[in-house]
């Protein structure tokens, strides 16, 4: 068989749905994030065909369908990726982290919770708690936490970042519209961060960073949530140094420089599931 014939056979095979879907899934995994138009050109099929293939692959759990394309399951959480996408990334790891972090919360306590999908996973695991006062900038959280767990729930005001569905603003409340801002304090701040390195905790947005840092400063105990895909990365806005947290709840133990830095900072590392 000549090379030209072999090439023709490969192109023909690629048009078989099962073969094309496998190649498409591999392409997304290799490139991390792709558009429908890019896949249509790469595989010489229509945009409608690509969309159908992506929908099937998403249903099979082989990639994550996004508006206008797809991202790899292994991509982690890209900075400023929409909440709808991030809800489908590293779901099992976030659920384990959320369940472990919920064990650290005492009934009757005051808890700050920030925006993000790992924080939402934590909130869902508060269903067996009682008499909690929760203050959050997470616009989605009130609908996710069990009403039976709550004594009072407050949403911090400010502008809403639609991509994260979280507010950015001061960690304070005004009892009346024209009254002075009241200082608040929590027993525990549960903070999901965008990245963690020896330099500290960081996120991609300045407003988010300020809000998270304020929550940390106004809490007696700080619990940071971060899955292992966020290790050894630094994003645009630094939140604080490692020593700002009392413990880190994650899905895998940090190693190397990060592990040493956490130990030096006195941060207790809790691995969800004991892995």
Helical run tally: 10
Rounded to an integer, what's the Rg over CA atoms? 22 Å
Strand order of the largest sheet: 6-5-4-9-12-14-15
Residue runs with pLDDT of under 50 for 5 or more positions: 1-15
**Biggest sheet character:** 7 strands, parallel
H/E element sequence: HHEHHEEHHEHEHEEEEEEHEEEHE
CA distance, first residue to last residue: 52 Å
Helix content: 25-40%
- The backbone outline, from C-alpha atoms, is globular
How many distinct beta strands?
A: 15
What value does the average pLDDT take? 85
Bin the strand percentage: 15-25%
Can you characterise this structure?
The structure is a single chain. The protein has 275 residues and is α/β, with parallel strands linked by helices. Helices cover 35% and strands 23% of the residues. It contains ten helices and 15 strands. The strands form four sheets. A seven-stranded parallel beta sheet has the order 6-5-4-9-12-14-15, sandwiched between helices. Strand 5, helix 8 and strand 6 form a beta-alpha-beta unit. The N and C termini lie far apart (52 Å). Residues 1-15 have low confidence and may be disordered.
